[in-house]
Amino acid sequence: MQTFLLFGQIRSMLDDWKQIWNLIFIKIEMINLKQKTIMNKILKYMKSLDIFGQNIQLNFNGQNQYQTATGGFFSLAIIAVIAFFFQQNILNFIHRVDIHLNAQTIFDFNPDRITFNEDNYMFALAVDQTNFNTLPFFNITLKQRTYTRSSDGSLNKQDNFIDLIPCTQDRFQKIFKNQDFSVQFSQLKLEEWLCPQLNYSIQLGGSFTSDIFEFVKITVSECSNNSNSNSILSWKPQCASTQARDRYLQQERSFRIRMYMTNNVINPLQVQNVSQTFLDDETYFSFLLQTGTEADVFYQKYNITTDDNVIPILKKIDEEIINVKRAGDFKTKIVQNNDQQFSAIYLRRSPYTQIVKRELQDISDLLSYLGGFANIVALVFGILIKSYNKSRCIRSITYLVMIDLANYVYDFPTKSISIADSQERKEIKKVIAKARSRTIVKQQGQDQELHSQMQSPKHTQIQLQQNDTKQQELYNISKQDEIYQVKSELQITNRQEEQLLFYQEQEKIILKLGIQDRKSYLTQQIQKILNRSKPILFNCKYILSMVFCSKLFYDRNSILLHKAIKKINQDLDICVVIDTVKEINLIKELLLTKDQLVLFDFAPKQVIDLQEDEKSIMTRSQGSNSLETMRSNSNQKEVQNQNKSIQAYYKLFQAYDHIHKQLQQDNKINEKLIEKLGQEVRDIFDVSHLIQWERKSIKCLKDDMQDDSVNSDPLSINNVEQIKINVKLST
């Protein structure tokens, strides 16, 4: 009992484990299925992100685009226009002329420091009078002042005197590098003016509210001959008398302090010489002995960066700092003078900084500019081309495409059959009718002979059965057989002679029609058919007929063109295409059994290999193209290409010949296929078939008759002699 309980427990445990494993397997399969579903969704989403997807479209004549000679002409015109308008742009790119400019003005309460020295700045000071360097009315001093503001708000002022010395030309010429400053220096008599000391350096930075404020003060003070007060100055002139100063004031009504300085004008659009140096004479101020003038002259900083890289990935940037006093950038005020100062000029740093970024045109900018202009030109010309190529569209098929489709599908005969061709066709029909009637008579005669062959022995056998003796029966049978054999052999000989005469008569008729052989006749007749059919053309008359609502210029070509486009529009309708596909499927179901349909649907795919001897089915369009190829090669020595062109027609004739042989099997489909060729083509193929058959038959008959005449006597003679021998033996 315990054993059975133990066995039951083990069995239940195994069942439980089996269920657990089944659940695990089901869970694993669900996980795998879920992973596959997620992977398929990911792949589907990745496919939707593909920006390189290709459009699926139909081809026409083996091309996925419809191209015309007019489109090629306009394409060349677009290239010419682009080359004409962009030749200067390309030259500018080569000479690095075009510049992209980005200018920005920055305001700062605490502007950074700028430095003036002999390499970038020079100025000259003087009071407007004669002989200023020898007999001055006033003294001029130059100070570099620095105000330092501490954290408690106290202001520490520091002065640094800068000596003034007579100006020389070489110091200005150092600034005017590419200019000759000697003439201007002499005309202005700058040798009588005062310039800062050699190797000077002044700093301008900050503002009055900044922690560090740096500026320069130019002071006009009383002229003194005291050597103690002038000890720090290199310039120690002899002062003019007070009477001379008063006479000048009475005559000029005021004194003026002048300042000539080198300045720069910025031309950021210039590739070379971004800054141009000139002598600025704008700074001069008037003062009196009792009232004076104080002026603040501001200097701006220009930070100019130039990117002159042809390839965008290269980043070689040139930076240039230029200090500029802009026109009118100063402030003046009137003050009460004292004995120590009559006028003052403060050179300060402007709170405005100009940031100029220059980028010379690189190759990417040139290509984008060319591409944009090319797209605009292509759009303008494209409107003209589309207006020429299309009128009414069906599924984005243009007008000229529909015309070519119409020429590909339909025939448009433009010439009627001539009288000579009509007479030739009548003669051909007579030959064909006579040949067919002769064939029918021969077939009937053969049938009657076959019938007589079957009836004569039977009739003899019936008569012999009525005889009483078996010997008489055998004798009569042998006698009748011999007579029948002689008659049949005589008839065969006569029929061969008649057939030979008939074939010779047919050959004379064929030669009379000018037919040399089947090859030349077939090619000549096909050429005549294709020559009478010319394609319709899209011309100006059709456009004018549309403009005048078919009242004017509505000629034969316009009528055919209108009908062809209307017909091709109907044939290209999607409903017609779907109905045609359904009809094809219905024909498959009617002509094929279920087993045949299964075999048809699972037919092997077409094999494409490296060999190029692929055979194609003959079509009307291929025949036309082959004929054109044969014509184009007619004046050349390319015999191989001509043979290929002629073989295209022979394939069609061979197909007709094979189907024509199967007409005796009462095949309605073959009869309808032959009827679709048309009466004219059928007549041509019938004559070609007749030529082929008659020539072979005549040759065989002649060979047979020659062999019989040479090797032995005629069959009929042998049979007659044998009859005579048999009669003698019987008697």
Structural class: alpha+beta
Low-confidence stretches: 391-397, 446-464, 613-619, 625-639, 693-702, 704-731
Shape: elongated
Gap between N and C termini, in Å? 123 Å
What percentage of amino acids are in beta strands?
A: 15-25%
Q: Which sheet architecture does the biggest sheet show?
A: 8 strands, mixed
Helix content: 40-55%
Number of strands: 15
Radius of gyration: 58 Å
Number of domains: 2
Structure, described:
Helices cover 52% and strands 18% of the residues. It is of the alpha+beta class and 731 residues long. The chain folds into two domains: 101-365, no CATH class; 419-595 and 619-716, no CATH class. The strands form four sheets. Strands 1, 4, 5, 9, 12, 13, 14 and 15 form an eight-stranded mixed β-sheet that branches. A three-stranded antiparallel β-sheet has the order 3-10-11. Helix 8 (419-466) packs antiparallel against helix 9. The longest helix has 48 residues, at 419-466. The model is unreliable at 391-397, 446-464, 613-619, 625-639, 693-702 and 704-731 (pLDDT under 50).
Write the layout of secondary structure elements.
Elements: H1 2-48, H2 69-94, E1 99-107, E2 114-117, E3 123-127, E4 138-149, E5 155-162, E6 164-166, H3 169-173, H4 182-188, E7 194-196, E8 201-204, E9 212-222, H5 242-252, E10 255-266, E11 275-287, E12 291-307, E13 317-324, E14 330-336, E15 343-360, H6 363-389, H7 399-409, H8 419-466, H9 470-512, H10 518-531, H11 540-547, H12 556-571, H13 574-591, H14 594-601, H15 620-632, H16 639-661, H17 668-676, H18 679-711, H19 715-730
Parallel strand pairs: 12-15
Antiparallel strand pairs: 1-15, 2-8, 3-10, 4-5, 4-9, 6-7, 9-15, 10-11, 12-13, 12-14
